[in-house]
Write a structure and sequence with these properties.
Blueprint: E1 2-8, H1 13-26, E2 31-42, H2 44-59, E3 63-67, H3 71-79, E4 87-89, H4 92-100
Helix pairs in contact: 1-2
Length: about 110
């Protein structure tokens, strides 16, 4: 599980990339619950990091599920036609339920 907050922008990219990279390496296949409830804004740099992590998880046979997205992040994703790309769930419980149903999930 990874929690992110604040602005997902150019300044946050290196730390975000490192945190998601560590999470992707923890399980094979990678299964990540990504808490985004504290995200206050996201620009193209931050979104690129999120999408790259999601793509990596899927190409490795895993999955990344984001949860608790606030109105600002949901609007940003919708405005950029990305609202159907990231798997968004309303709560951590729902994200974990989704990940448990994934083939290769932990018991």
């Amino acid at each position: 599980m990874v929690e992110v907050s604040g602005a997902l922008d150019l300044d946050a990219c290196d730390e975000l990339r490192a945190r998601l990279g560590r999470a992707l390496a923890l399980h094979d296949p990678p299964l990540i619950a990504l808490g985004v409830g504290g995200v206050t804004s996201a620009d193209s740099f931050g979104l690129t990091v999120l999408l790259a992590a999601d793509r990596h998880a899927r190409s490795s046979g895993g999955r990344m599920v984001a949860y608790a997205a606030g109105l600002t992040l949901r609007k940003t994703l919708r405005d950029r036609a990305l609202d159907g790309v990231l798997d968004l769930r309303p709560s951590l419980a729902e994200a974990l339920r989704t990940l448990r149903e994934h083939p290769g999930a932990w018991a």
